[in-house]
């Protein structure tokens, strides 16, 4: 029984939101309630002034009024104070515990007054008791326990007192009235309370959902700005930071450096060892970069194997270059992965604010330009965007424009460089090399306009025109002389473009078995699977494939083995170093052995001197191209060249 009473009176700890709402509501209602009680008291004391003693009509009312006034002030102050959940619960519990004694005190005061009142005054006391009980209960309505205690400690005793003390039908009827209305009031209090609790619960839930949503938003934002694989900021975050740093640098008139780093040799690792190995490598790379950088720069992964670094306190150009060299060096140390050892490197392009650009786009593009420049011209050496680059960009833009306007059919032509079979001392093939005689720019280097055509999306069309011209010239060669034709990555990027090439071969009537298509590693690296598909399609016609510029990229042995190749062309940079650099000589030797072991041919290009020729020969390499034999020749010269070298094949080429 006591336990049940205690449980009923206890303010629950497991609903802090509801407690807080009740507390707020009481903060508003309790001062009003005390004001009402005080007014009622004063009214009652006033009517009994002449009949009752002073301690009942003056001392006690003043005492009550002071206490209630002080409590009202306290509650009013609470409105602006923050309380913990526990403090609130305690305050409410005190209110609950106090509600019984306070109402009992009122009751005793009323009953004491009844001793002195007569007739109408007794009615007033009864009226006061009822109205005050209901009034206070409704003021405390949200604190269910207090409201019910208030009702229970006033209404039944008053009713019983009325019925027993007066024992008159009128008083008994009033007592019954009071009990019925009191019971109804308790019932209403409970209902209102349940509704109030439900409302708060709903609001709390809503609040929790809001918080959850906010948390989710925060997580999403973090996710949207983080690279999932490495945990580094991603491209979006990098751009955002760059924008911010530019603003700060503009305001404070300070410097800022944008570094772009692109991995060399990442793709073969991905292709050969598989994607998990590629992922592990990227993680290891980001760890190495991060540990070298520390707090000195903001490292981000921009996507794929591209990283960005922002330095807000960059120091001199030399200091930045030194840092970049260190970063390259850390990447050059072998990565030991589960699947094997990966050897990669990094190419770095750098742009400085405000010298290289003032906007995000400018700085990024220029660092990217420096990176591309470094890739092509100075392998491994970090490069700052410079005025020369600016000039080159302008020239390049002009070149691209002219190329777009060019009449490719008229302005392009082919030259042919013999590839000799030194065992037979005969021309084994001619490599067709493109030339562009621009009416405005004059002769443009093949490397420059091919790259420009690739970037401007003109290469597919250009390759078609060039192939037709090469095939037309090759029709006049002896039957044992092949045509070696260079393909760009774009030519292999879709089966439609491969079919276009094959259709042209077919239309020319030239036997596909006499064609060698030269592809570069960079083409293969773009999309390994698709390129293999394209190469198989080409080989199914009888045409052959040579891997051009071998050794300049990051081809590994296993990489080469996976490609359907017939030949490798050792890059001319190796031949240039062959006479005075032992390491280079060893590399060429190794390539020669590799080709022999996997049963594919090996062409050495760029042989210029008899000494180089000798050295290459000693390695057992016999398919040779280079200025030592001939520079690229025009169509007529090529024909004369082949006639003088392959003379006993006259019959064959006449009938070809
Ligand atoms: P590549 O395929 O490696 O072509 C060989 C380049 O080396 C040619 O330069 C050639 O003239 C040059 N070369 C040959 N022998 C020697 C030598 O002994 N010493 C030196 N120093 N150089 C030698 P070219 O004609 O300027 O071509 C440059 C690059 O342009 C080619 O490199 C190739 O990647 C590209 N290219 C040329 N024609 C075509 C084409 O029709 N289609 C495509 N897609 N690319 C082409
Ligand atoms: Ca070539
Ligand atoms: Ca080459």
The CATH topology label of the largest domain is: TIM Barrel
Radius of gyration: 47 Å
Q: Report, as a whole number of angstroms, the end-to-end distance.
A: 118 Å
Relevant CATH superfamily of the largest domain: EAL domain
Q: Total number of helical segments? A: 25
Q: Level of helix content?
A: 55-70%
CATH class of the largest domain: Alpha Beta
Number of domains: 3
Give a count of the beta strands, DSSP E runs of length 2 or more.
16
- Tell me the CATH architecture of the largest domain: Alpha-Beta Barrel
Label the structural class: alpha/beta
Low-pLDDT segments: 649-656
Largest sheet: 8 strands, mixed, barrel
Average pLDDT works out at 89
In order across it, which strands form the biggest sheet? Answer: 8-9-11-12-13-14-15-16
Characterization of this structure:
The protein is of the alpha/beta class. The chain folds into 3 domains: 2-208, no CATH class; 235-385, Reverse transcriptase/Diguanylate cyclase domain (Alpha-Beta Plaits, 2-Layer Sandwich); 398-646, EAL domain (TIM Barrel). It contains 25 helices and 16 strands. The chain has an 8-stranded mixed barrel with strand order 8-9-11-12-13-14-15-16, surrounded by 5 helices. A hairpin with a 4-residue loop joins strand 8 (412-421) and strand 9. Helix 6 (144-166) packs antiparallel against helix 7. It is rod-shaped. The N and C termini lie far apart (118 Å). 37% of the residues are buried. The model is unreliable at 649-656 (pLDDT under 50). The protein binds ligand C2E and calcium ion (2 copies). Residues 417, 432-434, 445-447, 450, 466, 486-488, 518, 548-549, 572, 605-608, 625-627, 632 line the site of ligand C2E.
């Amino acid at each position: 029984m006591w336990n049940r009473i205690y449980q009923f009176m206890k303010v629950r700890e497991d609903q802090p939101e509801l407690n807080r709402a009740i507390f707020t509501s009481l903060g508003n209602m309790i001062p009003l309630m005390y004001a009402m009680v005080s007014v009622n008291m004063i009214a009652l004391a006033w009517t009994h002034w002449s009949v009752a003693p002073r301690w009942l009509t003056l001392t006690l009312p003043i005492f009550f009024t002071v206490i209630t006034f002080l409590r009202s002030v306290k509650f009013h102050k609470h409105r602006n104070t923050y309380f913990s959940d526990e403090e609130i619960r305690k305050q409410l519990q005190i209110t609950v515990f106090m509600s019984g004694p306070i109402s009992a005190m009122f009751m005793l005061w009323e009953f004491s007054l009844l001793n002195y009142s007569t007739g109408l005054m007794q009615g007033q006391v009864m009226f006061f008791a009822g109205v005050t009980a209901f009034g206070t209960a409704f003021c405390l309505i949200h604190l269910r326990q207090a409201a019910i205690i208030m009702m229970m400690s006033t209404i039944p005793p008053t009713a019983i007192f009325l019925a027993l003390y007066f024992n008159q039908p009128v008083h008994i009827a009033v007592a019954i009235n009071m009990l019925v209305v009191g019971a109804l009031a308790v019932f209403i209090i409970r209902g209102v309370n349940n509704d109030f609790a439900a409302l708060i619960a709903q609001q709390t839930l809503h609040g929790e959902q809001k918080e959850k949503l906010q948390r989710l938003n925060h997580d999403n934002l973090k996710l949207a700005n983080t690279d999932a694989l490495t945990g580094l900021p991603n491209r979006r975050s990098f751009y955002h930071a760059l924008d911010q740093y530019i603003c700060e640098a503009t305001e404070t008139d300070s410097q800022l450096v944008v570094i772009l780093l692109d991995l060399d040799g990442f793709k073969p690792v991905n292709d050969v060892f598989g994607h998990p190995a590629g992922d592990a490598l990227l993680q290891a790379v980001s760890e190495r970069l991060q540990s070298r950088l520390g707090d000195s720069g903001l490292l981000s992964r921009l996507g794929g194997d591209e990283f960005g670094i922002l330095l807000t306190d960059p120091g001199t150009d030399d200091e930045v270059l030194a840092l970049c060299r260190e970063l390259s060096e850390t990447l050059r140390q072998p990565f030991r992965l589960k699947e094997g050892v990966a050897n990669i490197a990094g190419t770095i392009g750098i742009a400085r604010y405000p010298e290289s650009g003032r906007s995000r786009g400018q700085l990024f593009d220029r660092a990217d330009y420096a990176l591309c420049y470094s890739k092509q011209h100075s392998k491994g050496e970090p490069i700052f965007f410079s005025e020369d680059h600016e000039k080159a960009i302008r020239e390049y833009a002009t070149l691209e424009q002219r190329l777009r306007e060019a009449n490719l059919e008229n302005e392009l032509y082919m030259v042919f460089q013999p590839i000799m079979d030194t065992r037979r001392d005969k021309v084994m093939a001619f490599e067709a090399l493109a030339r562009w005689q621009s009416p405005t720019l004059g002769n443009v280097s093949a490397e420059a306009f091919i790259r420009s055509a690739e970037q401007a999306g003109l290469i597919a069309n250009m390759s078609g025109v060039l192939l037709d011209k090469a095939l037309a010239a090759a029709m006049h060669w002896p039957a044992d002389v092949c045509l070696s034709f260079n393909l760009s990555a774009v030519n292999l990027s879709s089966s439609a473009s491969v079919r276009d090439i094959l259709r042209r071969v077919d239309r020319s009537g030239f036997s596909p078995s006499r064609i060698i298509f030269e592809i570069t590693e960079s083409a293969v690296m773009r999309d390994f699977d698709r390129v293999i598909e394209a190469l198989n399609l080409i080989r199914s016609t009888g045409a052959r494939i040579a891997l051009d510029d071998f050794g300049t990229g990051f081809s590994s042995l296993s990489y080469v083995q996976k490609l359907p190749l017939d030949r490798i062309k050792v890059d001319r940079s190796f031949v240039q170093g062959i006479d005075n650099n032992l390491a280079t000589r060893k590399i060429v030797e190794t390539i020669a052995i590799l080709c022999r072991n996997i049963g594919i041919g090996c062409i050495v290009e760029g042989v210029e001197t008899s000494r180089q020729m000798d050295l290459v020969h000693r390695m057992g390499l016999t398919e040779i191209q280079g200025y030592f034999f001939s520079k690229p020749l025009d169509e007529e010269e090529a024909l004369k060249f082949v006639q003088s070298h392959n003379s006993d094949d006259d019959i064959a080429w006449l009938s070809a």
